[in-house]
Amino acid sequence: LKRGRDGEALAFFETIVESETARARAKNRAYLSMARLLFDNREFDQALKLYDQVEQIDLSFEQAELLLEKAWTAYNLKQYRKAMGLLHALKAPSYTRYFLPDAYVLRGLILKRLCHYIPAKRVVREFRFDHGRALTLLRRRQPLNRIKTIVEGGTQTGEISRRTAFLRTLEDERRRIERYDSSWEDVELDQHLRRLYDLEIREQARLWNLDFDTSADDTALELLEVEEQMNLLDYEIGLDIFKRLKLEEAKQTKEEPLIVPYDSDSVYYEFDTEFWNDELHSYEFFINNRCFEAAG
């Protein structure tokens, strides 16, 4: 991929997904890599089909990221209801803790595209409410390791994610020594264990700080870039609210048909505020295009 040999890369990934001995995680990574490659080449239809092949094997940040990538792909295919459904899935309790500011941008873009201006404005306000404090602290030059949003966003993936989990485990085990120290005093095992854990915790904390310096900068930059996009989106929404859509422009926009096949093998249920993990990738958000009303 780094050498620009996309065709060879796709062929290599295909051999992995077709292999009978490859593990599920390896096939998932291969499908995901192929989908991202096709997305970059703007082959959105094929990319979405490959994204759908990626199995949900856990509720990790990578799975939340997958939902967002699928939503962007559906948006580029003008499948706005599917895109909004995938974004709605990110509001499941399993995913709300993850740092994915791009989701606000995409939700606002879709609502603006369909002329739902007031809901689009609410998305902008929601972003500012959720991340306003972190942005204020960034402008005040607060150390990044003291900004909760940056710490959470900068440690949710990659090597630092694993190091963070390991460091927390060490600290938890270090505290547990205090519960049993009376039983070990005679042989001084408690003192020996404390020294070992203290040394390892200091070393892991040193390595964590080195990793965090880079990841925190990236997270802070991403948040500031998304803020710029949200400010621009807010400005454009304000202009479009007072812009009357011409009839010719409305005719050029095709309404996505709303089809609920009651007599098919599929069953459709109205969302009742309860998320089911095995349904997250199949949500459809039934939203109409109000641009037709504006042109009427």
Secondary structure layout:
Blueprint: H1 6-18, H2 24-40, H3 44-51, H4 61-76, H5 80-89, H6 102-113, H7 117-139, H8 148-154, H9 158-184, H10 189-241, H11 247-252, H12 291-295
Helix pairs in contact: 1-2, 2-3, 3-4, 4-5, 4-6, 5-6, 6-7, 6-10, 7-10, 8-10, 9-10
Helical proportion, percent range: 55-70%
The number of strands is 0
**Class per helix and strand makeup:** mainly alpha
The share of residues in extended strands comes to under 5%
Largest sheet: none
State the low-pLDDT regions, or none.
none
Task: Give helix and strand order, one letter per element, not per position.
Answer: HHHHHHHHHHHH
Q: pLDDT average, as an integer?
A: 86
General shape: globular
The N- to C-terminal Cα distance equals: 49 Å
Q: What's the quaternary structure here?
A: single chain
Q: Rounded to an integer, what's the Rg over CA atoms?
A: 24 Å
Total number of helices: 12
